[in-house]
């Protein structure tokens, strides 16, 4: 099926062009025409794949999510440790931070999407659907941690999950603004996790 | 000094035009010409005040910071409670969230600035200078709270301050994306504060 292969190859080329623009001058001011020029194809051909800038941004976001998921999965598989809830959560959260070129560009595409979504309710659907899924996954990990006695049972798993997601977002912003280093952001994330994974007093009865 | 008055009045008009654009279609795509048109003045006259879009954004940011500080001060003064460190921190943090039109627009101007700053190191100076000042102020409040026995002494005031600032930023993003309501974001902020202000066991000795 050479036609399908061409189609996929073309999408990948466009994707890489989007990526280059996002990581250098940013996607905010970039038009479809700019992306076509960067990909070395005509505007008409680009529009065969994406009719609007919003379609292109949503495609870029999906691509980034897939890359991030792969990165996180690889990171968890490469660990020598048992994938406990804490290890899984830490891998996901550090995977959300802009710690290298790929994740940095990914975050910037997310910011470009955010910008348009704030002024366009239809674009907000992605965030409204995606974040609650992530929160549910995190909350399930936290409930497991509560069962394992690693997180105190009085913690609300859904609320703690949303605190972690919001924190990762804010820490990322301040990495990109050079307010703190990537290392410092990871350290702050670990601080939040260590306070959450405070364990349960298993041996609370005083010794005689 | 009528000339000075005119000058201030003109800056205020431009400021309001910026504000209207930020709260509707966003400042990202807006040119100096767009702002001049919105303010009902010529481009040449606008450039008498701001030579570049970046100068205009920095001016808008300063204006927003002044408004936010005033809002937070008024909120603290209006409280019936004693301005304890916790009350002061809560007022500052909720003042950072986009809970009404003014703070929402303020946050959006901040996002427009962020966008450009990511791709322009000179613009990052503002964030690099401003956030550490805020962190120092928060950390001083937390050290006071530790002295008062309201926050456990093992907490690192600077790190906890940066966690709160990052959290407020992330919670704000998800308000604007309709992931959670403003009320939910305030509740999550209160959760973080209540875990931090866990107090100190003053009476740890076991009863006989």
Radius of gyration of chain A: 20 Å
CATH superfamily caption of the largest domain in chain A = Tetracycline Repressor, domain 2
CATH topology of the largest domain in chain A: Tetracycline Repressor, domain 2
- The rounded distance between the terminal residues' Cα atoms of chain A is 78 Å
Largest sheet of chain A: none
Q: What is the subunit arrangement here?
A: homodimer
The outline of chain A comes out as elongated
Which consecutive residue ranges of chain A, at least 5 long each, have pLDDT under 50?
203-208
Count of discrete domains of chain A? 2
Give the strand content of chain A.
Answer: under 5%
Would you tell me the structural class of the helices and strands of chain A? mainly alpha
Determine the fraction of residues in helical runs of chain A and give it as a percent range: over 70%
Going by CATH, the architecture of the largest domain in chain A would be Orthogonal Bundle
CATH class of the largest domain in chain A: Mainly Alpha
Mean pLDDT of chain A: 86
- In DSSP terms (H or I, runs of 4 or more residues), the helix count of chain A works out at 9
- The topology string of helices and strands of chain A comes to HHHHHHHHH
Number of strands of chain A: 0
Greatest interface and its participating residue counts: A-B, 43 and 44 residues
């Amino acid at each position: 099926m050479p036609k399908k292969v061409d189609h996929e190859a073309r999408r990948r080329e466009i994707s890489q062009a989007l990526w280059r623009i996002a990581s250098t001058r940013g996607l905010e001011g970039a038009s479809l025409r700019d992306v076509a020029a960067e990909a070395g194809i005509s505007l008409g051909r680009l529009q065969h794949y994406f009719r609007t800038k919003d379609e292109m941004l949503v495609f870029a976001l999906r691509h980034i999510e897939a890359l991030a998921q792969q990165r996180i999965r690889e990171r968890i598989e490469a660990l020598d440790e048992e994938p406990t809830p804490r290890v899984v959560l830490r891998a996901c959260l550090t995977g959300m931070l802009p710690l290298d070129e790929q994740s940095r560009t990914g975050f910037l595409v997310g910011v470009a999407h955010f910008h348009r979504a704030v002024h366009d309710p239809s674009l907000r659907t992605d965030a409204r659907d995606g974040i609650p899924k992530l929160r549910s996954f995190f909350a399930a990990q936290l409930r497991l941690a509560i069962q394992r006695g690693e997180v105190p049972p009085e913690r609300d798993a859904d609320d703690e999950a949303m605190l972690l997601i919001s924190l990762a977002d804010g820490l990322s912003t301040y990495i990109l603004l050079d307010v703190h280093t990537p290392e410092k952001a990871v350290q702050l994330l670990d601080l939040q996790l260590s306070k959450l994974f405070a364990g349960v007093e298993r041996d609370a009865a005083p010794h005689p």
